[in-house]
Each structure stands twice: as C-alpha cells, then as structure tokens.
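User: Fold this; tokens only.

Assistant: Input:
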Amino acid sequence: MEVLVNWFTNTLGQHISREMVIFIISMIPILELRGGLLAASLLNISMVKAIPICILGNIIPIPFILLFIKQIFKWLKKTKIFRGLIIKMENRAMGKSDQIKRYEFLGLLLFVGIPLPGTGAWTGSLIASLLEVDIKKSSIAIFCGLIMATVIMSIVSYGVLGNLIH
C-alpha cells in the first residue's frame, strides 16, 4: 500500500493541494481512509486536519455502493469486456463475507474497522449490498467501522502510540 500511496502523493501533489491529495486517496478502493491518513502523515498534514478530510473522502462513495452497485454490476455483466472482472470482484467480496453473514452488524463493523488487506468501507459496502443487509443497519455499521479504522490508523500513521510510550 505504501508504494501506491507514495505514487499518488507524488503524482497528484504536483497539481493539487496536499489536502485534496488525501481526500482523493481516501476515495480510492484499496487505499481508502488508511491510505489517506498514511499520505497525510507523509505530507506533514496535522492529524486534526487530516481525519475529517479522510473520513469524508472515504464515506462519499459508500451510499452509492450500497444503493446502486448491484444494478451497476448486473448491467456490466451483460458486456463481454466487464463480465469476467465483475464476477471476479463479486466472488472475491463474497469470499470475505463469512463474518458479515454470521454476525451482520458486528461483523460488518469489524470488517470495516480493522484495517487489514482487502477490508474497508468499499468492500464492506459491496458485501453488505450483495448480501442485502438492511441499508440503515449497514450504513451505521460501516460508519462506526470507519471511526474505528480512523482511530487505529491515526495511531499507526502518526505514531501516537509511540509518543505515548516515550
């Protein structure tokens, strides 16, 4: 992830503000909030300033995913170009869906909140949509998970834990 964050930071940073860089990184699948906070720490943006920007950037795509992804996937699967990719994405997301199926709200919250590779708000929203989890329940779980991920990634990216220990 660091390689992607560095690439986006260096490439975008030449053309737009540092704040806009972390906002865009936070919107990108795979990188999301954790990439945005990592980029913010590399760009020397204060944690207090970076957190709301990264949360907003990461949360903007979520309602669209929850509301429209099934219809978009259905439409894209009708095309030769995207059929294989969409099926692969669905299978990959559903392969990570066990804890969400079993625990629904708590599973979704933990899936989004614990920043591991392949987890996050994008994948959590996709799984919630594919499993037809209630949109209100999934939205709250994803938002709470995003807050949890923010705390964890702020500690990791800004070394807050290191500052507390020393």
